[in-house]
Amino acid sequence: MSDTVYLSVGNRIIEKLVSYSIDADMFLAAGHFSIECSPRDALWIEPGLLIKLWVNKQCEMVGIIDRVEASASKKDHNIVLSGRDLVGLLCDHCCENFGTVDRLSGKTLIQIAEMLIKNVPFIQKKDLEYQEKTAKLDKLYKQEKIDPGETVFEVLKRCSVGRGLLFYGKPDGTFAFGKPRAKGSKASFSIIRSIKDSQKNNVEDGTLTRDISQCYSKITVIGQVDGKDDYDNDTQITVKGVAFVPGNIVPYYKPLVVTSNKDSIAPQREAEFIAGKQIAQAFALEYTVPHHSQSCGNWKINELCGVLDEALIVSGKPIRDTYLIYGRTFERDKETGSTTRLRLGYPGIMVSD
To answer: pLDDT tens for residues 325-341?
Structure first.
C-alpha cells in the first residue's frame, strides 16, 4: 500500500519530499515537524509561512515554519523545514490583558476561547471544536483571571481541565475541547503480531514499557475555596480531592499529597487528572507500522486500535485488548520508505500536565 504525500505552501505544491517526520499527540502541547526538500522546490520558502501536509488526499498537519536550514556538500544539497503545528502559536502567544478577574469571570468556555484566539494569527472561531454536551460548555466561570506571562494555550488548558475536558490540537488544524475515546465503540484500526502465523502480521516492531517509579496508589490534593466562617466572615475553607491508581498498576500502598495552586480547578478534578497522567506513564505501548494508513484510512489520534500481540506479554499472557491511539508520527527516509510510529494507551484516561 503506497502513500501519496505532498506539501502545500500558499498556492504552491511540493510533491517530492526527500524525508519527513510529522508528529501529533493529544497529550503534548504542540506537534513538531521536520521536512527535507530539494532546493529547486523550496529555495523560496521563508520562516513564518503556513504549511499543510497532505497524506492520501487528507490534511494531516497544519503548521508554521520556525526554521529553514540549507545544507550543501559534494553529494547533497537539501533544505530542511522545521516547526510546530498551530498549537505552537497558542503556546507562544502571551495574553496581554491580565490581572483582572472580570476578564474571564462570568463567561463560558466558548466565550473565553473565542476571546483569547481573537488576535492569534491563522486561527479563527470556526477552528474550535466542542465535543461535549452544552451543560459543561455553558457553565460560567467564577473568580477566574489571567496571570501575567500566561499564554493562550495555558489559559485554555486550565479552563478545560476545570470542566473535566482536554484541550488539544488536531492534525487538520482544528482545536478540540473533549475527552479521549473510551471503550465501547468499535476499534477503527488493528495491530496484529502472530508468532504462529506471521503472514497476518502488520507491524515492523513494538515496545512495551511498564514503569511505576513515578506512580502512587493514592493521590490527595489539598486546596482552598472562598467561603464563610461561623460569624459570616469571608474566609478560606480547606478542601481536598482524592483519586486512586488501580492495584494492577501500583500493587502496594504509596500515597502522594500535593497542595493545589489552581484556584479554578477543583481539588477532586486535579487529583483525577494526576492519577490519569500516572496511569498513562505507567504503560507505554509503541509500534512501528508500514505506511501511513490501513483500509479504514490514515492513522489518527483519538481513535481506538485493537491489538493482538503474541510477542509482548502482560501478566503472563499475550496482549489482546483495545487501546487508544494518542500519539502518531508519520516518517519517511531514503532507506526505509514511509512508516508510522504509534503511541498507544488505555482508553478514556484523562491526561494533562
So the answer is: 999 999 998 877 899 99
Q: Do domains 90-178 and 189-211+282-345 have the same CATH topology?
A: no
Domain boundaries, the chain: 5-85, 90-178, 189-211+282-345, 218-275
Predicted structure pTM score:
0.91
- The fold of the 189-211+282-345 domain, in CATH, is Phage tail proteins - horseshoe like beta roll fold (2.30.300)
Helix (H) or strand (E) holding 328: strand 317-333
Q: Which of 282, 323, 319, 324 is nearest to 302 (CA)?
A: 324
Residues 6+ apart with CB under 8 A from 73: none
Please determine, for residue 196, whether its predicted confidence score (pLDDT) is greater than 70.
yes
* CA contacts within 13 A on the Cβ side of 55: 26
DSSP per-residue letters across 175-193: EEEE----BTBPPSEEEEE
Which tens digit of pLDDT belongs to each residue from 16-40?
899 999 999 999 989 999 999 988 8
Which cell numbers in the block locate residue 337? 520508505
- CATH architecture for residues 5-85: Roll (2.30)
Tell whether domain 90-178 is in CATH 3.40.50.2300: no
